[in-house]
Amino acid sequence: MSGSVFVTGSTGIVGSAVVENLRAKGQSVIAAVRKETDAASLPPGVEHRVFEFGATDDEVDAALAGADRLFLMRPPAIEDVATYLFPLIDAARRNGIRQIVFLSLQGVQGNRKTPHYAVEQYLKKTDAPYTSLRPNFFMQNLSSTYAADIRERSEIYLPAGRALTALIDARDIGRVAAAVFSEDGHLRKAYTLSGEQSMGYRRVARIMTEVLGRPIRYARPSEKEYLAKLAGDGAPADYVAVQKMIYRVVRWNISALPNRAVRKLTGQPATTMRQFVEDYRNVWS
Q: Hey, which of 1, 32, 176, 203 has its CA 20 to 30 A from 184?
């Protein structure tokens, strides 16, 4: 009998979508949570276990008991993946995990400075049974990180210039993860996941204007203005540095190319920006 999928980050934007879509496919899930109270946000009936990256070998082995697959994602606060993520990969192999689906990022193969690159290389080096998902920028950034600017000032305040981005709905990443966990043929493969529409933030603002029924504008600050605002709002220096790098990548149009990977892997098209805004409209009300 097939075992369960152990899902790290199970209460986050992507992890919760993985849990939901695995359950929709009838798969058994073990949701990893940092503390017992976090389990309240899980769907009813989902098994959960308290788990922390950096736990002892015995604690990790106990957490993985009964699982035969692992959804692995790096918590944003963890940079030292050798100390905190590599031991979980080792434990997965030690416990007979037959597939590790790793949430990586688009273009990781050309960006050796990212922690995701180190994880992908370790998965290959150890001959782990991996599948890497390399998503583009999330639509959900608009409904989380940048939601307050849109809700309170009716503006998208990002230094993306005139660049295009093929944004992807995190729920589609969950659908893809559930698909590759549920089918054969995905081991030691990497999939770049983008939306099927490539657009600039001026067009995003226009769609939001039409759906929300009030003017939303794309402010288009300079990099200097944007970083100064982050610093003024009290953002940590390392977060400011990451944002600087991210939006330079955007302005170089590295994330502009759409694809049909979601459609190919799930049999359904990627979520459109208009549908996303319809679904999340209450966030900006």
A: 32
pLDDT per residue as tens digits for the range 183-224 = 999 999 999 999 999 999 999 999 999 999 999 999 999 999
- Closest by CA position to 20, among listed 149, 121, 169: 169
State pLDDT tens for residues 3-56: 999 999 999 999 999 999 999 999 999 999 999 999 999 999 999 999 999 999
- DSSP line for 166-181: --B-HHHHHHHHHHHH
Q: Measure the CA–CA gap between 232 and 59, rounded to whole angstroms.
A: 41
Residue (of 224, 231, 205) closest to 284 by Cα position: 205
Alpha-carbon Rg of the chain, whole angstroms?
A: 19
257: left (phi over 0), alpha (psi -120 to 50) or beta: beta
Q: Specify the 3-state DSSP secondary structure of 236.
A: coil
CATH superfamily of 4-135: NAD(P)-binding Rossmann-like Domain (3.40.50.720)
Q: Which of 168, 140, 129 is nearest to 266 (CA)?
A: 168
- According to CATH, the topology of domain 139-166+196-255+269-285 is UDP-galactose 4-epimerase; domain 1 (3.90.25)
Long-range contacts of 63-67 (CB under 8 A, 24+ apart): 63/6, 63/30, 63/32, 64/6, 64/91, 64/92, 64/95, 64/97, 65/95, 66/3, 66/4, 66/30, 67/3, 67/4, 67/5, 67/6, 67/30, 67/95, 67/97
What is the distance between the alpha carbons of residues 112 and 10, in angstroms, rounded to a whole number?
Answer: 27
Q: Coil, strand, or helix at residue 157?
A: coil
- Give pLDDT tens digits for 148-191: 999 999 999 999 999 999 999 999 999 999 999 999 999 999 99
pTM of the model: 0.95
